[in-house]
# Entry
Amino acid sequence: MNDSSSAKVIEWLKSAGGITVTCTILVAIAVSFHKGPYVLVNTLVTGGMWALMAIGVSLLFGVMNISNFAHGEYFMIGSLTAYYIMNPLKQYLLETPNDFLSFITPILGIAGAAIVGAIAGIVTDKTIFAQLRKRNREGWLLNCFLITIGIQIILINVHMLVFGNTFKGVVNYWDVPSVAFGDVYVSVDRVVVFGIAMAAIVLFWYLMMYTSLGKKIRAVAQDENGARMVGIQVNGVYSTTFALACGFAALAGGSLLFMFPSYPTVGVAPLYNSWFIIILVGFGNVAGAVPGGFMIALFQVVTRTYMGEGWENVIPMFLIAMILIFKPYGIFATKVRSVWEQ
Amino acid sequence: MTQLTQDNSTGFSGILGKICLSPMGLAGLAILFLLPLVPPFNQDYMIRWLISGAIVAAAAVAFDFSAGYLGIVNFGYAAFIGLGAYTSAIISNKIGISPFITIFAGALVSAGLGVLTGIVSLRLRGMFAICFTWFIGIALMGLCLKLDWLTRGPLGLQCDGFFEGNSSLPYYYLILAIMIFTYLVLGLMIRSDYGLAFRAIGQNMEAAMTSGVHPTKYRVINFTMSCFFAGLIGGFYGHYYGILTPELLHTQKTVEVLVIAYIGGRSSLWGGIVAAFPFIFAMELLRSSLSDLPGINLIIYGVFLIAIMVYYPGGVAQFFKNLTARKQRSTSSTAQKAKTAEAGV
Amino acid sequence: MKNLNAGYGFLKVLWDVSIQIDRGEFVALVGPNGAGKSTTLKTISGLLPPQSGKITFDGQVINNQDCALNCRNGLSYISEELNLFTGMTVLENLEMGAQLLDDKNKMEENLQFVFELFPRLEERVGQYAGTLSGGERKMLAIARGLMSNPILVLVDEPSLGLAPQVTEEVFNALKVLNKKGVTILLVEQNVTKTLKFSSRAYILEKGEVVLEGPSSELITNDHVKQIYLGT
Ligand SMILES: Nc1ncnc2c1ncn2[C@@H]1O[C@H](COP(=O)(O)OP(=O)(O)O)[C@@H](O)[C@H]1O
Ligand SMILES: [Mg+2]
# Structure
């Protein structure tokens, strides 16, 4: 490492973002020593998924200027789908054991969740936002925000009406022994879920940076008319963006089914979390969402461990409110902010 | 009640106009006064529905005061209502003062938090400000759940009523008075120079600043007023229902108010009142007649909100404004035709 | 394009404007500020739906066709606002301009061509479009518009805010392009220069065509002399 790059690293460490990341890592290590490494495991498993949710919200905001308050409901759609795929299969497997089927059941459930979520996203865009785009671009930001609130109300209550107000969950995905990391035993489910989150994030990054679809999405985000002028069909790109964002949320929902059983308002906490992350790291900051996800997860795991159930929304909230006061555009704030301020 | 007649400054409607009322609005208020006296509305459950309508109407007016004019949606609005409610209930329970006095104490505490929020959120714009108020709301609700030595948490806090006896009628007139009080105070505020400054800040903060409007002052004033009335309404809510749970602070309650405010029409104040009564009434009717389909009324809520936002973003107020603006439109289209004719020569 | 009426919402800007351009021509559309020149181009390109009238391109009516589809058919629009992708590099911008081309070799060829036209861009391929100077941005916008092998290029005020010699560069580039058989509709306020470069011109005032004809004739027209050339 040469001088200039190490100087850059040091400068970054001194910035608000660097300090926060360093503190987070220190706190994580300290807590794992004090309360055992399971705190860390939970942080990693949920943090990756919160990051995925936040990436979706960030994407919708960056590309379409939609602040999605219904994002948690796509998480809910994901967990519901995963439940209705996995549960019947697991019932069937009880009577007729089949190694292969029991191996792919969770995979089917999670993949199905992502697909159904993506389809739900496309439907949302085509039925609602495409109409709004056609009709009225005035006050877009606020109108969309209110529309997503409407979507949230509808989806929660349709779930309640059709599937009932019960917990629909599975205990675990694979009936296999836990994996040992030293003397820490972690269930395979958790390891796989963490892997899924990381894979999805890397895949997303690759998609955005190197594929023509990603370039199109970025082009539309930067200048919609410019994109139309070079022949990009923006409506298609918008639908794809929605599919990606909602697909990620549903993927998170499906993957976390063993920790968060599906019920009508299961999406509310993930929604809070993804918005904490976005506010924390700044709007449209997709790369920041990953450390942000782990930070929020750690906040919550720590407050739950030390202060008990129920505090996990209060303390991080006050912390974020404080951060907002001093860094009004998030801790990883960049210079690009004009779009987000309207 | 409407501001439609701003231009006529003479005669009876002129005097009414000075206090933000129009003949039509006055007629509407008269109907609201008489409604619970005529059948079928004089049954107790109907009066209770009317009270629900009036609570939401008053809250929507105060909500629109910040959201419609300043452009800052107070997404933690229900928490401010809840703060007023709990403060009033706790004070009247512990000290035994009449609820008529303690609701003002609740309103002041809410207003105090409003001042803080206003000052603290000054540097925040757009979604950041919305999220900030939202987080305050979530945090308050969490606190309310956890501080059960004070609030009794999910078990619910009992509070005394305003009146002896079982009739809901006095409560109805009380909330109606609160609603009208809220509307008149905020309406007069909007009519004054403050209203202009609010609009200027809401439309373009930088431009407002360069033309000498000091956003700090106006944002704080606006937030404080809006939260004061939220607290007042909250105080009524608690003493009317007799029990308070942290659910009152939930974002879902904010959404209920918000939906009505936007269906009524942003930056109109009175739109929320016009929308609230029929809407809440219809919702209650639906809920009681379709009790085997829980949540169907909320689904309709959502559909309504989306439809309004996509197809008629101005809401009910826009509808009334269009009615009066039609005349103007027809004159301007004549002007366009004149230009066409001129061009043809 | 026939009897075109267009505008924004309730506001009507164009009043029965008719323009006819043949293949291979270099046509100019000039007029004072606010005449509706940009609105005309926006409407032809498909960014703005017309209120009434008929736009034909290559024998096809393209009235309500999306801008993206027009681009596919060989109509390229270079707007006044440039609409660059400011968060992408010069090269990425150019690649986006060519994203409809299937043939990778064709793209390389076009890149060579636009770099020949604007050598300055080649020096800055790796720079972000948002950090370019005004003139360079304009060049990039024009270059991006040429990457898709257009048949017809609509250019909106390329000289706006440019130094005279850069303007000259840009106009020369357009001339070169026209020589290669590309049809050009150029919108300008700089009347003298535009009339010198173009073969035919329309004069638009208050949303109506007031004069049209070969550029060489218009330059001697009394009305034009009086209003635009100040003589
Ligand atoms: N986006 C818009 N919304 C409303 N009116 C516009 C818009 N763009 C331009 N106009 C109006 O249309 C008229 C013509 O504008 P434009 O076509 O840009 O003129 P030019 O390019 O000839 O200077 C002007 O009066 C302008 O104010
Ligand atoms: Mg122009």
Residues 24 and 179 of chain C are 8 Å apart (CA to CA).
